[in-house]
């Protein structure tokens, strides 16, 4: 496997592979276990396809009891486990291990309950994001977080990565719309955190699990908040002669006290790619485009459209268009949500980054990214959640050209370091995974990282759940003060370090 260094494969576990497969088949009979080399090829990467690794075995459980039994067996026998949803992760969070079980949750795909009185839905983790909205829209409700991959990404993966979307500026990320989960720990215990109620007593364990990237447990059920659709929603397309002016407009809109339902920005390469792909009616003679959606009562929306228009003109906007129907509004968004595949039409490969910055730093960061683009000799298309400062630069490269992938990785690392330098963070919604793992020291010191790993040890004493992700150095729990060393004998002496 090329890419980041992963934990060294356990030769003892690999030597027991056939016994492990037989045991897993007893737990998940029928088509519940995949162990053929060719059949497992479909699972060798997630959405970060630059990095690939075939798993030792793939298990597709159908019941919570099976998930519990698989995890208990792996815990008892010292076998690593990598949970996987739809495999749309863009940070390598579901990258398999050659000596690990890939626990694929795709068969958990049912909407279990819709409770309109309490405005929530209970679903299994393999239900797609969009399917939740489809299940409740007949009563005028919807699920607010809407990643661009919402037609394919699953709610379990959304919980693992704390996913966002174009409408998360006003309505929050997954964590703000999550009420409860059922979680199976590495030793097979089934626990419930939260529920249909708004807040839970005690420690915020639900907040810890959200965004934990499969390092703490496997989610088998999710309770989410559903919202009534707004009375009115209209979207504006506002074009600017430069990305810096568009960035200043974003900052001005927020500082004026206006919180749009969504506010997205695209630069010229992304605009042209999306327009050629979707034909959404984007202006092609601008350097940057803002999509601003205002929602609420009709009178409020009308007032806010006028106010945003004034701020846009103040910042040099050269074109402005307001949707006149819901179909046109959705067409505006269709171009934005198709931007990633659209960019794939103009470059053999692209590397999608994910970092977050303070909004006021947007002009500076865009300027410095342009300078980095010239330095590395690689083009970049910018598509991002401008309202909350979550950037998604798409670095264009050709994997068939020698060293271009390496240059793209270095370019991406410099972008993320820049985000931290200006007061931002390494990720907004894609997670750390393996992509940003070795950059964690740019944001956290050794003490910070040690405390985070102590938390993992409380859930996973042997470090079996998704090892090699998030933490740049894998410590034994004993090193972090989690375990007692008796007469010089350390528990789990074979736990790999790298």
From TrEMBL:
Domain FAD-binding PCMH-type: 51-229
GO molecular function, one term: oxidoreductase activity
Protein species of origin: Kaustia mangrovi
Protein name (Swiss-Prot/TrEMBL): FAD-binding protein
Keyword Cell division: no
PANTHER family named in the record: GLYCOLATE OXIDASE SUBUNIT GLCD
Source species, domain of life: Bacteria
Pfam family, one: FAD_binding_4
Cofactor: FAD
InterPro entries on file: FAD-bd_oxidored_4_C (IPR004113), FAD-bd_PCMH (IPR016166), FAD-bd_PCMH-like_sf (IPR036318), FAD-bd_PCMH_sub2 (IPR016169), FAD-linked_Oxase-like_C (IPR016164), FAD-linked_OxidoTrans_Type4 (IPR051914), Oxid_FAD_bind_N (IPR006094), Vanillyl_alc_oxidase_C-sub2 (IPR016171)
Keyword Zinc-finger applies: no
Keyword field: FAD, Flavoprotein, Oxidoreductase
């Amino acid at each position: 496997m090329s890419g980041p260094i992963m934990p060294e494969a356990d030769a003892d576990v690999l030597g027991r592979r056939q016994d492990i497969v037989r045991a897993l088949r007893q737990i998940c009979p029928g088509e519940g276990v995949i162990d053929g080399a060719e059949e497992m090829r479909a699972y060798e990467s997630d959405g970060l396809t630059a990095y690939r690794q075939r798993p030792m075995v793939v298990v597709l459980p159908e019941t919570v009891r099976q998930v519990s039994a698989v995890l208990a067996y792996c815990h008892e026998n010292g076998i690593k486990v990598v949970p996987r949803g739809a495999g749309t992760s863009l940070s390598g969070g579901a990258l398999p291990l050659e000596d690990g079980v890939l626990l694929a949750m795709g068969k958990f795909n049912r909407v279990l309950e819709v409770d309109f009185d309490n405005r929530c839905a209970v679903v299994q983790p393999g239900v797609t994001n969009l399917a939740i909205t489809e299940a409740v829209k007949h009563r005028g409700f919807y699920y607010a977080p809407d990643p661009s991959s919402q037609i394919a990404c699953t709610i379990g993966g959304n919980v693992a990565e704390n996913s966002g979307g174009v409408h998360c500026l006003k309505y929050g990320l997954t964590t703000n719309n999550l009420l409860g989960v059922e979680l199976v720990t590495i030793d097979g215990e089934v626990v419930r955190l939260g529920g249909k109620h708004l807040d839970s007593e005690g420690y915020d364990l639900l907040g810890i699990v959200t965004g934990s990237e499969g390092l703490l447990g496997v989610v088998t059920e999710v309770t989410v908040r559903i919202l009534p659709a707004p009375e009115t929603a209209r979207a504006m397309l506002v074009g600017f002669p430069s990305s810096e002016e568009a960035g200043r407009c974003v900052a001005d809109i927020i500082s004026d006290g206006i919180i749009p339902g969504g506010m997205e920005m695209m630069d010229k390469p992304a605009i042209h790619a999306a327009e050629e792909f979707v034909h959404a009616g984007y202006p092609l003679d601008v350097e940057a485009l803002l999509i601003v959606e205002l929602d609420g009562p009709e009178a409020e929306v009308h007032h806010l459209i006028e106010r945003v228009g004034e701020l846009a003109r103040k910042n040099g906007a050269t074109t402005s268009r307001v949707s006149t129907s819901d179909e046109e509004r959705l067409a505006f968004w269709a171009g934005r949500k198709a931007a990633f595949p659209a960019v794939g039409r103009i470059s053999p490969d692209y590397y999608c980054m994910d970092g977050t910055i303070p909004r006021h730093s947007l002009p500076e960061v865009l300027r410095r990214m342009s300078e980095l683009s010239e330095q590395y000799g690689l083009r970049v298309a910018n598509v991002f959640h401008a309202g909350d400062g979550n950037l998604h630069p798409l670095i264009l490269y050709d994997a068939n050209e020698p060293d271009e992938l390496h240059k793209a990785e270095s370019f991406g690392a410099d972008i993320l370091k820049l985000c931290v330098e200006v007061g931002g963070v390494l990720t907004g919604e894609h997670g750390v995974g393996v992509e940003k793992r070795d950059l964690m020291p740019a944001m956290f010191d050794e003490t910070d990282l040690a405390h985070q790993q102590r938390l993992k040890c409380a859930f996973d004493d042997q470090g079996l759940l998704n090892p090699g992700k998030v933490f740049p150095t894998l410590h034994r729990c004993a090193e972090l003060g989690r375990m007692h060393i008796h007469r010089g004998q350390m528990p789990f002496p074979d736990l790999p370090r790298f």
